[in-house]
Amino acid sequence: MSxxxxxxxxxxxxxxxxxxxxxxxxxxxxxxxxxxxxxxxxEAKRLLHKQLKDVSPSDIKSEQDESPPPHY
Length: 72
Fold this sequence. Notes:
Residues 53-72 are annotated as: Disordered. With 72 residues, the protein is mostly helical.
């Protein structure tokens, strides 16, 4: 291989590495943002679940409190 070929290949590898670094950083930022979004959604779900329990207690009676169905 000539020196020009080696230099050309080295330039190409350096360019590819720079693009890969940029993609990795972009993906890392996106994953971090999605992690925060997921945490916010879980917290919102937890709060909604608590509010739902507080607003409407279950209308289902326990098995001991339930009268037998009419066909018994």
